[in-house]
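User: Write out your own:

AI:
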Amino acid sequence: MLWSSAVAAQGLGGLRIGGRKAGGGLSALLGRATDSALDKLAQPGAFFSDEDVRIGLPLLGKLGGGRGGLLGTVMGAGSRLGLLDGLTRGINDAAGVAAGEAKPIFREAIDGLSFNDAPDIIRQDDGGTQYLRSSANDRLHSRLEPLIDSALGDAGIHREVDKLGQQHAFIREAGLNRETLNRSVTDQGLDGIFTYIGREERGFRKNPLGALGNLLGN
């Protein structure tokens, strides 16, 4: 059952922030924010259209080897030659597909949170998002990466990268391959997802008519 459906089935008024229900109120808020964020990012062009979360080609310096300068030069040359046209848009579209399939892994992560520090989480307007990331980031990354890998494969991005690597030595030397691409897109995609979850959480808390925000005393 989707989070939104689950919340509706329980009835928002049935969730109370006091006592043993503290975790339930926070869980419902975070679940709703997560569902809304993933729905928005799953829309065609969502990642690419928002510069705050747009995913770029991997920077090798972030992946090890200290050759980010070389990669920047290589990617600049590749772009001027038209070799990388469509790749950036393609990886962003693939990330959107993965986001649309990621609700179950985020719901599982939220279900596993203890919310022992409920008062501290409540005081921050994106406290639930921060808590989810600090508690489950590595687990979410490992679960999201196969979705990214599948989406990139289905979109033909892996074939394109392999073809470019076979045809152009500087692409291989820059370290642009399936492994580095998967890891980088997962890193950046997860950053974008958490950015959107935080936005949604803050919006729900600030909305005076939002029942979930009211549950947290806002």
Q: What stands out?
A: Residues 3-215 form one domain. The two ends are 27 Å apart (CA to CA). The chain has one domain: 3-215.
